[in-house]
Amino acid sequence: MVQTLDKLVSLCKRRGFIFPSSEIYGGFSNTWDYGPLGAELKNNIKRMWWRRFVHGRDDVVGLDGSVIMNPRVWEASGHLENFTDPLVDCKNCKRRFRADHLLDVAGIKPELGTMKHPPKALKECPECGGELTPVRKFNLMFKTFIGPVEAETGVAYLRPETAQTMFVDFKQIMDSMRMKLPFGIAQIGRSFRNEITPGNFIFRTREFEIMEIEYFVREEDWEKYFEHWKTQMERWVHDMGISAKEFEAVEISEDERAHYSKRTVDFEYKYPFGQKELYGLAYRTDFDLRRHAQLSGVELSYLDPETKKKIVPHVIEPTWGVDRSVLAVLCSAYHEEQAPTAEEGETDMRVVLKIPKNLAPYQAAILPLSKKDELKKFAEPIAAELRNSLVIDYDETQSIGRRYRRQDEIGTPYCVTVDFDSLQDKKVTVRDRDTMKQDRIARDQLTKYLKERLHV
Ligand code: GAP
């Protein structure tokens, strides 16, 4: 596991995973772009999720909703009223802080609502010692305007969570897909929150992606399905290459839960900057369907075929942050270890990303020993063949040792070396990223050999 976040940030930039957005203009307010390898890793995570939870189940269907929804959605969901963070400003240096974070740092349990006499931590700026303003509520939703005039009548919001689409489209999906309880609606999409203190690389940003399921159940079954999804999430964390000691499932107390939740378990990961939320699992009761039915006037119920009674389903909501998944995978995958060099008996330090093989940006790299034409002629058709079914890199620059190190650093599970012997025996050398063991494989068996090991 990586020891400091700086090491990971530097690797991500150096190797084209993630870098500051708009960097030629000096960056912009903790925004990040996923480079070629970051985009591959992120897409692999999303693909694995969709494959497992949508295609892999007969009780979940997918959805792709819009970011800007009718503003009444946010009235019904409670976001207009409740989706706030407590905020203080420094009157001197004008810096802005989250009050609950200041209390956290001071070791005080944040119970802001009941705090009559604020402690020193909420009166004095931690940066310059200046006076802080009283605590104010700050709504995290990004506001925008529909149409050319910036008038109150045209106000709309960028969605702060994907969940609401699943509730407002509930009837549409029931009608068109003939779903029977229990069933789920899944979505992967961007969400936007005007976070007061974004930071820690891609951990807290203002624009991020969520993978989310709203799983509709009969009220009496909620505990059973809560446990079901908890197990599914634990399995998922394991399959992301995260060991049991790197995360903890934490029961969230009533005063810390979101306004809609009757039970929440957070999956917290031990990031280099501390143990914090990775994923969440909530029992949202029938809060959302009831509120939308109330405000829209449209009945959002389910006719139970067994009892012939109409019921409002209850909801279990497992939620996975995409960007935090990328961060956790990278943190857990990062290893520094002594490894033999090309020189007999010598070792040096190698950085290797032991990313689960199915998630790695490249599944294999083709490395001809030199740029000579005869090797090219042998290696290029191999690359072309592998490209039909795998994502591969072709690299013929620098020494083979340096190329191995480069592929280790980006987590490529297999390096395929083509040397001058290959021209005679029609075999190639396949090196395993983790064990560094090398196998000599017949050229015509290569695709099969790799696909078997990559499970594709
Ligand atoms: N529908 C429930 C919901 O949105 P949430 O815990 O507020 O729950 C879901 O957010 C997930 O999104 C979190 O578990 C986390 O992984 C991720 N997330 C939340 N805020 C984020 C931010 N500012 N930056 C990056 N990821 C974030």
Brief overview:
31% of the residues lie in helices and 28% in strands. The protein is built from 14 helices and 23 strands.
Bound molecules: glycyl-adenosine-5'-phosphate
Strand content: 25-35%
Please state the average pLDDT score: 95
Please name the CATH topology of the largest domain.
BirA Bifunctional Protein, domain 2
Regions with little confidence, pLDDT below 50 for 5+ residues? none
Which strands sit side by side, in order, in the main sheet? 3-9-10-16-13-12-11
**What is the fourth-level CATH superfamily of the largest domain?**
Bira Bifunctional Protein, Domain 2
| CATH architecture classification name of the largest domain | 2-Layer Sandwich
Helix amount:
25-40%
Q: Domain count, please report it.
A: 3
Number of helices: 14
Distance between the termini: 27 Å
CATH class of the largest domain: Alpha Beta
Sheet with the most strands, sense and barrel status: 7 strands, mixed
| Strands, total number | 23
Quickly give the structural class: alpha+beta
Give Rg in angstroms: 26 Å
